[in-house]
Amino acid sequence: MAASCGDGQNTRPSKGVSRILLKLESNLAERNFYEAHQIYKTLSYRLSNQKKYDEAIDLLYSGSCRLLQSQQIESGADLAMSLLDVIGKLDNDKRAGHIHKLTTIHELIPPDGQERQLFICKAIKQTKTSSHTAGSPELHGAVANTLWKEKRHSEARYHFLYSADGENCGRFLIELHHSSGSNPHEVDLFITQMVLQLLCLKNASTASVTFYAYVDNHPDVVKGPPYLLPLLNFLCFLLSAVNEGKLAVFTILCEKYNFSLSRDPLYKAYLDKIGQNFFGLPPPKNSGGLFSGLLNSLFSGLDESEDLPYSVSQDAPSTSGISAQSPRILASSDLD
């Protein structure tokens, strides 16, 4: 495994704790992992009850990493969940300082088991704030890049959507287009869907960086602007209109590019939401009905369950085209 972590022990333990730590090291050296796991749990519980949260966090982080690196997946993941419980007792600003620990543990947990899904779902919830209701963008970005490296494209795409890493998101989409077996003429559809969804989440800056990272580096895109593909020109103008808050330009763009936008029936719904987000437009009057129900089902995402909106058992990207990347990609709460 590529990920690594230090022991995390930043404070000098008391004499009593020092003796326990010596016993812990002895058990680890003898590969008595069950006993080591019990010591980690007992000592971290004591430290947490004494409100020595930093010491408890360091201990659990070190223990989780060491057990996971020793292929003790269940025990290591259990300590990781305990780590999240302690981090949850901190103020939001202090939680942010431990994001790197969570991303390291995520990389160490094998991708095909439920332990990773349970851990990252809980970690995301622990990093939610009033300004980041879907969890820390830094955490999402790090997780996305790990999943991208593992070629778990559907999962990576979901986390890139909630990250602030537009540069890597754009480059990831290039690989996704090439690996999915899609028609070369769909090169514009991959970036259009992502940019519109990012704008639905009010993340205009990441949408812009993602767009230019994609069009500037994709070998099948003739450099612009202007671009040969109409949807790419539309996105270029749309991002400018959003940045400048020009409602008239937005309205004209939707009219002039109506034919190209008809290639995906969801584009209209995305643009309705973008109009509300950035130009103060009211929701469409005919927002109910069958199409609305379909849209809501596509937009369902993280909720109060312990599940992420994708299957952890998938080990290859879909090759059925761009529509396969649509289901359950946006949380309905993020669109309100």
Give an overview in words.
- By secondary structure, the protein is mainly alpha-helical.
- It has two domains: 1-127, Serine Threonine Protein Phosphatase 5, Tetratricopeptide repeat, CATH 1.25.40; 134-336, Tetratricopeptide repeat domain (Serine Threonine Protein Phosphatase 5, Tetratricopeptide repeat).
- It contains 17 helices and no strands.
- The protein has helices spanning 15-29, 33-49, 53-69, 73-87, 92-95, 99-108, 114-126, 137-149, 153-161, 166-179, 187-200, 204-217, 230-244, 247-256, 258-261, 266-279, 290-299.
- The chain is elongated and about 75 Å long.
- It comes from Bugula neritina (Brown bryozoan).
- This is GET4.
- Its main location: cytoplasm.
| Radius of gyration based on Cα positions | 23 Å
CATH class of the largest domain: Mainly Alpha
The CATH topology of the largest domain comes to: Serine Threonine Protein Phosphatase 5, Tetratricopeptide repeat
Q: Got a strand count?
A: 0
Alpha-beta content class: mainly alpha
Helix run count: 17
Number of structurally distinct domains? 2
Main beta sheet? none
What CATH architecture of the largest domain do you see?
A: Alpha Horseshoe
**Helix and strand sequence:** HHHHHHHHHHHHHHHHH
Per CATH, the superfamily of the largest domain is Tetratricopeptide repeat domain
- Overall geometry comes to elongated
Helix content class: 55-70%
Low-confidence stretches: 301-306, 312-336
